[in-house]
Design goal:
mainly alpha, 14 helices, single chain
């Protein structure tokens, strides 16, 4: 009995020690979780204090980076998921797994931005609770929601992802049209800004930029005729694509100098011409490598260069849309019913390009539930939140097509 007593005391002491270790581990884990959540929230607040739109652009860029990595290295992970790669009569290749991973990440981004676009429909005033809690606030919750949206598509079967891939093809076409509108807006803003400087140096710069854009376009067209319509080979389709890209550009450039074209200018025409020629080149460069009218297909660098250029252009378009595409004057009007916002183009442009009070007032309130309703700004919003997120959702679809 005396021998058992020390053993019993040792067991009690051991049990107490284990309880203390478990309690310490729980406290450390709780502290780590609290610190992690605080860091995520602080990060969101730090970025959004500059601009909420900048934070959404960072999230989009992060999603794009994940898609690039997953495309090349996702196969080992995805092979461990039993419902992925079940294709009757086919053994999925490395390329198949990479494309599936890109589609799933793209779907996650589309779900996140599409959901925000739907929730912010008809949000026209700063006093709307959705402005404070959904668009400008709750960053910790939104970061968690974005991470969840990226993870959920990997729980879906292949058939659902195939359906999304077809939907993304349609959304990509819509985004190309929107991208053209964004490019036009940029070109006109560029032209008007330099002309307004009323100095010969800016006019010379404008003229030089126009000449350089047209010269680059003509040079690329000449190279496309040489590269993708080689002599001795019937490449009627390629010739037709190049010609139908060139002729309308020439006609509309000439039309922009005619008095019938109000506010016509050669710089916007040069920008659009360069973009159309680039799209034609991108399409021809993506032709199969074994296609006889694509002798440059043997050079893998062409396709990679085109992909990199497209990715950079897309990211630039999305970033620019974060500043301009959702603005109330983007389509030449104002938000609301037309009687609540009398802001001029100059006022909105100054605010949205980072030099005015509206952007500061719009994004200084980004902290989660800080300040109270009395101190929160009132009045109409300076840009359409719903359309802003819709642009990002379409861009997510386009990037899926671009990377696959």
């Amino acid at each position: 009995r005396q021998a058992r007593a020390p053993l019993s005391r040792r067991r009690v002491a051991r049990g107490s020690e284990l309880k203390m270790q478990a309690c310490a581990a729980y406290c450390i884990g709780s502290a780590c979780m609290t610190a992690t959540c605080s860091c995520c929230g602080s990060l969101g607040k730090a970025v959004s204090s500059i601009s909420a739109r900048a934070m959404y652009t960072v999230i989009f860029g992060l999603g794009m980076g994940i898609a690039v990595v997953m495309r090349d290295y996702a196969k080992p992970m995805m092979m461990e998921i039993p419902w992925i790669g079940v294709v009757p009569g086919m053994q999925p290749s490395d390329e198949w797994f990479g494309q599936s991973a890109v589609y799933r990440v793209s779907l996650g981004n589309f779900m996140f931005f599409g959901g925000l676009s739907a929730m912010l429909l008809d949000c026209k005033t700063r006093s709307d609770p959705r402005d404070r809690h959904i668009h400008h606030g709750s960053w910790t919750l939104k970061l968690a929601a974005w991470a969840l949206c990226v993870i959920v598509p990997f729980l879906l079967p292949d058939g659902f992802i195939d359906a999304y891939a077809w939907l993304a093809r349609l959304g990509s076409g819509v985004f190309l049209v929107v991208q053209m509108v964004i490019l036009l807006d940029f070109a006109f803003l560029w032209n008007e800004t330099w002309v307004a400087r009323e100095h010969v140096g800016w006019v010379v710069g404008l003229l030089g930029s126009t000449i350089a854009l047209y010269a680059g376009s003509v040079t690329l067209v000449a190279f496309m005729y040489e590269w993708y319509a080689p002599k001795g080979v019937d490449c009627g389709r390629n010739v037709w694509l190049i010609t139908t890209s060139l002729v309308p550009c020439v006609l509309f450039s000439a039309l922009s100098t005619h008095p019938i074209a109000k506010e016509g200018s050669l710089l916007p025409s040069a920008v659009v011409t360069s973009y159309c020629v680039y799209l034609c080149y991108s399409a021809l460069a993506s032709e199969p490598t074994e296609y006889r009218c694509n002798p440059r297909g043997a050079y893998a660098g062409d396709g990679k260069a085109s992909e990199v250029a497209s990715t950079v252009l897309t990211l630039a378009s999305v970033a620019y849309s974060a500043v301009r595409a959702g603005s109330s004057d983007f389509f030449g009007g104002t938000l609301g019913d037309g009687d609540g916002d009398g802001s001029s183009y100059a006022a909105l442009s100054g605010a949205e390009m980072g030099g005015g009070t509206d952007a500061d007032a719009a994004d200084a309130d980004s902290e989660d539930d800080v300040g109270g309703a009395a101190s929160y700004p009132n009045g109409p919003v300076s840009y359409s939140y719903s359309f802003f997120h819709f642009i990002f959702a379409l861009a997510s679809m386009f990037l899926a097509m671009l990377m696959t």
